[in-house]
Write a structure and sequence with these properties.
Number of strands: 6
Distance between the termini: 51 Å
Largest sheet: 6 strands, antiparallel
Helix content: 40-55%
Radius of gyration: 24 Å
Structural class: alpha+beta
Strand content: 5-15%
Order of helices and strands: HHHHHHHHHEEEEEEH
């Protein structure tokens, strides 16, 4: 039976109304979710706030009691170092925040909508990276530990010299209790137990994290110096593989110009990895996806 002119017109009209509703809904969602460029401008305008958060410490703690373990006093030294005002620290903080903003916001293509949850995860990553750079890579913690911390405080804490040279590495969380966490070191392919201090390792088993393990005088002998940052599996495994490859090259003392990082500094067969600096650990996080639950779990990737 042929379609009447009235029915055909009504069908086109209904279809057009649906298209208008869809376009309106998309426009509304786009307006509600800023693009990455807009988010970057927002974060740049908040760089002082981010810097203040780094300097004040993302993980506040009270003064440890007389019976507190040594590691709590070490955390207290870190906390004091974050708030320590010294002439060189302003430039250190500024650079730490600039690098962290650049790295933490680089994982989403420009112009794509960035939801509020994703923005929150990236802001936490920015704070985490900036804190690591400020305290460890830029020397604030070592400078504070040497003099301003004072002998009495250093005597109560773990030997800070054992904390200062520890690397940032990647791990997969195997199991968690309120007291301990079981980790698989992806670079060493080695299982180890660490203290779950103040329930700082709150992820579920299976999560991939990046963090800095430091020695303690309390069994099992290691803990994260701050809550680790949860990342996606692909980034974690690539991080580990590149670090393994770099260690092998450094031990061999030679390079076949196959760095694979696009450094552009290899000039010939006599190139040595010792001739120029390898990429820093934070560069490995440029394309990371920051998670709230393990990859593969419902809602794990945001």
């Amino acid at each position: 039976m042929p379609t009447s002119r009235t029915r055909s017109s009504r069908n086109r009209s209904n279809a057009e109304r649906k298209r208008r509703r869809t376009r309106k809904a998309r426009a509304s969602r786009s307006a509600a979710q800023p693009s990455l460029d807009e988010a970057f401008e927002l974060y740049e305008s908040l760089s002082k706030t981010v810097g203040d958060a780094v300097a004040l410490g993302d993980w506040q703690m009270h003064v440890p009691g007389d019976e507190a373990p040594r590691w709590e006093w070490s955390l207290w030294i870190q906390q004091q170092a974050l708030g320590w005002e010294a002439s060189a620290n302003a430039d250190r903080l500024k650079l730490a925040v600039e690098i962290a903003l650049d790295v933490g916001l680089s994982g989403t293509p420009p112009g794509e909508p960035l939801g509020l949850v994703e923005m929150g995860l990236r802001l936490r990553a920015v704070l985490w990276i900036a804190r690591q750079l400020y305290l460890y890579e830029f020397g604030v913690l070592v400078d504070f530990s040497l003099t301003p911390a004072g002998e009495a405080l250093r005597q109560r804490a773990e030997p800070m010299s054992g904390w200062l040279g520890r690397p940032v590495s990647v791990y997969q969380l195997v199991d968690v209790t309120p007291e301990l966490a079981g980790l698989l070191n992806l670079e060493e392919d080695e299982y180890l137990d660490v203290l779950n201090t103040n329930d700082s390792i709150a992820m579920e088993p299976g999560a991939f994290v990046v963090g800095r393990l430091v020695p303690t005088s309390v069994e099992p002998g290691f803990m994260f110096e701050s809550p680790p940052l949860q990342i996606d599996e692909r980034t974690a495994r690539r991080f580990a593989q590149r670090r393994i490859w770099l260690d092998e090259q450094l031990m061999a003392g030679e390079c076949d110009c196959g760095w694979g990082w696009g450094c552009g500094e290899c000039q010939g067969d006599d190139c040595s990895p010792l001739d120029h600096d390898p990429p820093a650990w934070w560069e490995e996080l440029r394309s990371a996806q920051f998670c709230s639950r393990p990859h593969g779990e419902p809602g794990g990737h945001v």
